[in-house]
Amino acid sequence: MKASKFSDAQKAFILKQGDDGVTVAEICRKAGISQATYFNWRKKYAGLLPDEMRRSRRWKMRMGA
User: Fold this and answer.
1) Is 36 exposed, middle or buried (0-12, 13-18, 19+ CB in 10 A)?
2) Is residue 17 part of a domain?
3) Where are any strands of DSSP class E within 1-65?
4) Which residues, given as ranges, of the chain have pLDDT below 50?
5) Would 20 be classed as within a structural domain?
6) Looking at the domain assignment, is residue 3 inside a domain?
7) What is the value of pTM for the model shown?
8) Nearest CA to 18 among 10, 6, 27?
9) Environment class of residue 54 by beta-carbon count within 10 Å: exposed (0-12), middle (13-18) or buried (19+)?
């Protein structure tokens, strides 16, 4: 699997901007990601802090998902 260009903290910051009312199009343009990527991250990491994102990802790797 390809390593992400963004750290968990960066993903959390990008998702937080959406919660703060910034439009998705503007967030994606500034971050250099597609809207599909933004919505996939939101579905996967909604409401998680960066350390919780890491914990979730490690757990999924151990479980083979």
Assistant:
1) exposed
2) yes
3) none
4) none
5) yes
6) no
7) 0.74
8) 27
9) middle
Question: What CA–CA distance (Å, rounded) separates 44 from 47?
Answer: 9
CA–CA distance, 42 with 34 (Å, rounded to integer): 13
Cα 40 from chain centroid (whole Å) = 8
pLDDT tens digit sequence for 10-23? 999 999 998 889 99
On whether residue 42 sits in a domain, the answer given is yes
Residue 1, both tokens: 């699997």
Q: What residues make up the domain containing 49?
A: 8-63
Q: b vs e for 2-33, b when ≥16 Cβ sit within 10 Å of the residue's Cβ? A: eeeebebeebbebbebbeeeeeeeebbeebeb
